[in-house]
Amino acid sequence: MAGGGSLFAFLFGLALVGAAGCVYPGADVPYVQTPDEVVVEMLQLARVDRNDVVYDLGSGDGRLVIAAARDFGARGVGIEIDPRLVAQSAESARRAGVSERVRFREGDLFQTELADATVVMLYLSRELNLRLRPKLLRELRPGARIVSHVFDMGDWVPNRTIRVEARERSAQVFLWIVPPKS
Ligand SMILES: C[S@@+](CC[C@H](N)C(=O)[O-])C[C@H]1O[C@@H](n2cnc3c(N)ncnc32)[C@H](O)[C@@H]1O
Predict the structure, then answer these.
(1) Quick one: how many helices (H) and strands (E) in the chain?
(2) pLDDT tens per residue across span 97-119
(3) How far, in Å, from the CA of 57 to the mean position of ligand 1?
(4) Which strands sit side by side in the sheet containing 169-177, from one edge to the other?
(5) Predicted TM-score of the model (pTM)
(6) Domain covering 28-177, topology
(7) Which residue, judged by its Cα, is nearest atom 6 of ligand 1?
(8) What residues flank ligand 1, with Cβ below 6 Å?
(9) Domain residue spans in the chain?
(10) What is the per-residue pLDDT across 47-98, written as a single tens digit (0 to 9) for each?
(11) Looking at ligand 1, which atom is closest to the CA of residue 24?
């Protein structure tokens, strides 16, 4: 009986890891992709254009940064802690023909200088958004846009919130505009 219980716990644990995605050592959140339909909505919500520099903090397979360059003419920077995903992103950018307009850096998003970003994309967690908030307000220029898939920023009220349907699920996407420095 005890053996059966242990087996159940082991299988349940495996299922949880599978559901959460793969967590790279040192990563603050697991790797889960933003669906492509939501990627488009996020970039449109920020009104990304060819004058923008779009950062994705925790860029996964690079899809947001690559779409910003390929479909909106922007430049982009992806910061990702998992070197395997950084390599995959660079290869996808090459195949999409946007290598000249994007960069993927292996590193910790909290150690990344954000001053040249005009748009920041996030799909992290509420807790990480709250930890990031002072850095975003300190380093980004007034007028910079921040877009977050699913997770809000506590009592920082978004300028816009939309609901997006993808893969038979519905998710909120939030937009904040960095206010003038006081
Ligand atoms: C939920 S995924 C989002 C991936 C991508 N932005 C997207 O929307 O498809 C979060 C990503 O952040 C990365 N990550 C977690 N903690 C990080 C950190 N401290 N610095 C950089 N990347 C991190 C994870 O490895 C993962 O790829």
Answers:
(1) 5, 7
(2) 999 999 999 999 999 999 999 99
(3) 7
(4) 102-106, 75-80, 53-57, 119-122, 145-149, 169-177, 160-166
(5) 0.90
(6) Rossmann fold (3.40.50)
(7) 59
(8) 24, 27-29, 31-34, 56, 58-60, 63-64, 79-82, 85, 108-110, 123-124
(9) 28-177
(10) 999 999 999 999 999 999 999 999 999 999 999 999 999 999 999 999 999 9
(11) 25
